[in-house]
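Write out a record, fold above all:
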Amino acid sequence: MPQTAMSQTLSFQAEVAQLLKLVTHSLYSNPEIFLRELISNASDACDKLRFEALNDAGLYESDPELKVKVTFDKAAKTLTITDNGIGLSQQEAIDNLGTIAKSGTRDFMAKLSGDQKNDAQLIGQFGVGFYSGFIVADKITVESRRAGLPAGEGVRWTSDGTGQFDVAQIERLERGTSITLHLKEEAEDYLNAWKLKGVINKYSDHISLPIMMEKEEWKEGENDQPGEMAKTGEWETVNQAAALWTRAKKDITQDQYDEFYKQISYDQNAPLATTHNRVEGSTEYTQLLFIPSKAPMDMFNRDKAAGVKLYVKRVFIMDDAQALMPTYLRFVKGVVDSSDLPLNVSRELLQESRAVKAIREGCTKRVLSMIEDMATNDAEKFATFQTEFGAVLKEGLGEDFANRERLAKLLRFASSTTDTATVSFADYKARMKEGQDAIYYITADTLAAAKNSPQLEIFRKKGIEVLLMADRVDEWALNYLHDFDGTPLQSVAKGAVDLGKLQDEDEKKAAEEAQTQFKPVLDKLKEALKDKATDVRATSRLVDSPACLVVQDGDMSTQLARMLKQAGQAVPEVKPILEVNAQHPLVKKLEGTTDEANFADLANILFDQALLAEGGMPADPAAYVKRVNALLV
C-alpha cells in the first residue's frame, strides 16, 4: 500500500510479532475461544462508552442501545464481530493493535509453560485477546470510529498476522468497531449459525449486552437443488443478555457461575468457592464473589491493583476496586453492583464513602463465611485454600481488628508433632498438657529450620507440642495476636524459657546453680562477644545443642530483622542473647580454656553455630571457616 497521509504500512512491535507467531502455531488447544475473546473485547468497548457517556451523553450519538452483532458470509468466508461501543481513533488503532503496553508479551512469554491448555488462558490475562483471531483467520480487517469523532475520521486496520499492518482513514457512519476475520480453510465450520450460537452460549452467555445474530429459517431447494438455511433479515438475541449477578440464584447453574468466573479472572480452573447474594438494608448491593483454586504468581505484591469489579446500577465503573475488599483478601475475584453509589464515583470518593465502608464490611464477612464453610464441611477444599492463601490470610491479623478472632480460628500451622499445616489454635489447646498455660510457637525461615531448632529441645524432651511457623508473614502477624481464647501465645525463642508447672523443682534448681557456678565463664563469653550479643546466660531449654540465640520479649527476632533487610528496609540493630548449655562438652571445654585467643575463637564459633542453626549467616563467614578449620587440624 503506498504511504500517504490517508494510509500507511507499519511494522508490529517485535513482541507482537513474536506473539502472533506463537498464536498461529496453535498455542490454543481449543480454537473456539477466539470468539469468547473478541466478544469480551466488544463488551468492554461498550462498557467504556457507557462510562465516558456519564459525563458526555452526546457520545451515544443517535444509537443509545449498546449491543454486539455476530454475522458471517459463507461466500466471502468471513466472520464479523461488531459493537457500537467506544471505538478507535486512527492513532488508537495503531497503538492498541500494533503494540502491547508495559511489555505485556515479554511477561506473557515468560509465563508460558508448554501446556497448551494452560498457556491458552494467558492471552486474555495479558490483554492481548484480539490476536487470538489469527488462530482461525489468515487476515483480519478492523474498521472503527471513535465515539464523538466525525464520520470522515474512521479507520481501517488490516493485517495478515505476519510482520506488518496497514492503516487507512475511511468514512464510517456508525461509531464502534467491526472486526472481520477472513477464515482459514480449516476454520470454515464457524460459517454456521448453530455452531456460533453454541460457542456464544458456552462462553459469553453471562455478558449483560445483547449478542445478536440474524435469524435463519429453512428454505426448500428448487429444481432439484438441496434446501438450506437462509437469513430472514430479522435479528435475535442469542445470549441471556442479563448480567449474571442480576439473575435469580435458582436460575443459574454452577457451570454458569464457573464460566463467568473464568471470564473475569482469566483462570482456566473452576473457583474453589462461590457466593452470590443480594444485600438489602441501609445499603443495597449485589455481590458475586469467588475464591480461586490457585494463587496468582504475584500474590505477595501488595502494590498490585487487585480487587473486585464495581458496577453501579449495572453500569460498569471500574476494575480492581480496592476499596471494596481489604488487602489481605486481594485474591478474591468477582463483582459488586451497588444501588446507592453515584454513577460518577471516583477512586478518591470510594475511600471516603460510608456506603463503600458498609459494602467492604459485608464483602469481608461473606468471604470469611465462605472460608469457614470450607473449614467445617469440605476438608479437601480447605486444605487447598490453606496451601494457596493461608499465608496471605494471616495479614488480616494486623489489618482487620474487627475480624481478628474469626481469622485466628481459620489459621493452620505445622507443629512439632505434624509436618503438615493442619493444626489450628483450637486443636492445639485441646491437647495441651495439664499445667501448661501458654500456646508455644517458633518462627523460622523454613519449616526444616523451625523443626530442628535447638530452642525446641526441652519442649521435645517434655513432650510439649510447639507450633512451627515458616511463612514470611508469621512473626509480623503474631505481633497482633497475643492470645487465643484467653490462652497467651509464647514464642519459644523470646525471653527466658519458663515452662511454669511443667518444669520440676530439680530442673529449676539445676538451672539456677548453673547460672551461679558458671558465672566466670559467662562473663568471659559476654566480653568476647560484646559486639554480637547483648547478654550470655546459662539455659535449661537446651538438651543436645551447645547454644542458641534468643531475644527479649517484645524485641524483633533475628529472623524478622533478616527478612526486612532483604526487603531493603532500614532495621534497627538486633543484638540477640546467647544462651549456652552448661552440660555440653563444647561449653565445658570453654571452662578449661585459659588461652584468651583460643577462648575468643571458641566463643565466636559457639555464637556463629547458634546463628547457623536458626537459618542465619555469620557476619564474617570466612573467619568462621578459619576458626573451625583450626579446631579440626
Notes: Residues 1-5, 101-105 have pLDDT under 50 and may be disordered. The chain is about 35% helix and 20% strand.
